[in-house]
Amino acid sequence: MSIGLYIHVPFCIRKCLYCDFTSYPVSGPAMADYLGSLVKEINLYGAALGDEEKSISSLFFGGGTPTCLPAGALKMILDELRYSFSLMEGCEITVEANPGTVDAAGLETLLKAGVNRLSLGVQSFNDGLLGVLGRIHSTAQALEAVRLARASGFANLNLDFIFGIPGQTLSDWQETLAQAAALYPEHIAAYGLQLEEGTTLAQGVGRGEICACPEDLELMMYRHAVEYLDNCGYKHYEISNFARPGRECAHNLVYWLNNLYLGLGPAAHSFIGGERFSNVPALDRYSEQLSGGEYPVEARERLTVEDEMAETMFLGLRLTAGVDLNLFHRRFGRRAEDVYRREIEGILKNGLVEINGGFLRLSSKGLPLANVVFREFV
Questions:
Q1: Cβ 309 vs Cβ 327: under 8 Å
Q2: How confident is the model at residue 23 (pLDDT cuts 50, 70, 90)?
Q3: Sign of the C-alpha dihedral, residues 126, 127, 132, 137?
Q4: Where are the domains of the chain?
Q5: Any idea which architecture 3-256 has in CATH?
Q6: What is the DSSP secondary structure assignment for residue 266, as one 8-state letter?
Q7: How far are the Cα atoms of 176, 193, 194, 224 from residue 211, in angstroms, in the given order?
Q8: Are 135 and 123 in contact (CB under 8 A)?
Q9: Who wins on pLDDT, 273 or 43?
Q10: How large is the greatest C-alpha to C-alpha distance in the chain, in angstroms?
Q11: Which of 234, 151, 152 is CA-nearest to residue 185?
Q12: According to the model, what pLDDT value does residue 22 have?
């Protein structure tokens, strides 16, 4: 069985005001330390895993901001991965990028290195709202990044956007979506802003200095995205993701189908060999453990069958197609309708889910209340 592979690049030019991901200020010495340590981690797993576990169906560089690294460094990582792992034919290789960190030469290097999908963190086409989020780029830079990506030859492009930003109006959101659709990317992600504890933006809201977006307005924005992007030819295939036919993100489907994946780099998470485990987040500890020939793992959890079944349910319900009940039966030897009889009966009665064609899926009523449904299986 093939797996998904995730590489965490923990650097940013400046941390966004809403971000709680593991990232560090970009610097030459820190980059060199990270790259040397990552190569050691790649080699450790390359020597330890079996052939099936080293067969990679999708590869995703996330962060942080992967394009903080020189394109040549990302190419070097890809070369090391090809030496230690087996990238399947047609392997989807995605690199996340901030529009303020790309140029023509770098994009051409990535494309030649085998990167075939670019994910641009645009977030908004409104400069004022980009300022609220603490983004380093402008609308003009985002549009130029899309132009450069197309000119370089990228034929699979994702644009990320955020709604529910403090001060954002429904009209702002409608204008951003219209500009996005006019660029005709293959994939669009639209996420509701999460005010994560400890972030600068959340602290500002907590002190009353910033007004959070009202929940009813955020719901209106979400429903508009679903309707508008559908009318523009995008399939709403996951709660926050929309794709042109055949352009669904293969790597994210690995997560939502609860399939196997390996994460490399500080704070990266993995699900392989019946375990979930996570790497240490601190770059110095990550490097120290690898220098000593140790895996840089901070926590491990051996999953029971019950754990895997529950995760398969609530992750699968993120997909608009829902959980494939026949596949669940083949995977676990038990019917989800029996294992979760009480839970499914309750949410069916409340109209939050429906069963259609062998799939249990969120209803139109349940879609904006997804977290309520997920809690039934946690």
A1: no
A2: confident
A3: positive
A4: 3-256, 307-377
A5: Alpha-Beta Barrel (3.20)
A6: T
A7: 21, 13, 14, 22
A8: yes
A9: 43
A10: 58
A11: 234
A12: 83
Q: Does pLDDT of 188 surpass 90? A: yes
Query: What's the pLDDT score for residue 90?
Result: 95
Instruction: Let me know how long the chain is.
Output: 378
Q: What share of the chain is helix, strand, coil (3-state, %, to 5)?
A: 45, 25, 30
pLDDT digit string, tens, across residues 316-359: 999 999 999 999 999 999 999 999 999 999 999 999 999 999 99
Joined tokens for residue 310: 């529950």
Tokens of 325: 């009940």
Q: How far is CA 57 from the centre of its chain?
A: 16
Q: Which helix (H) or strand (E) holds 36?
A: helix 28-48
Q: In what order do the strands lie in the sheet with 323-324?
A: 323-324, 359-362, 353-356
- Residue 6's DSSP bridge partners are 60, 263
Token couple for 374: 């997920």
323-324 and 359-362 as β-strands: parallel, antiparallel, unpaired? Answer: antiparallel
Question: Which is nearest to 156 in space by CA: 65, 90, 80?
Answer: 90
- Tell me the CATH number of domain 307-377, given options 3.30.450.20, 1.10.10.920, 3.50.30.70, 3.40.50.300: 1.10.10.920
How many CB atoms lie under 10 A from the CB of residue 3?
22
Position 216 pLDDT exceeds 90: yes
Do the two domains 3-256 and 307-377 of this chain adopt the same fold?
A: no
pTM of the model: 0.96
Give the number of other Cβ atoms within 10 Å of residue 295's Cβ. 14
H/E element, 35:
helix 28-48
